[in-house]
Amino acid sequence: EFYFKINIKCLSDITNFFC
Length: 19
Prior knowledge:
Layout: H1 2-7
């Protein structure tokens, strides 16, 4: 999913999961 790909780097930081 497009949204997931954007958030893939955010997965590293739980606080920025929806960045």
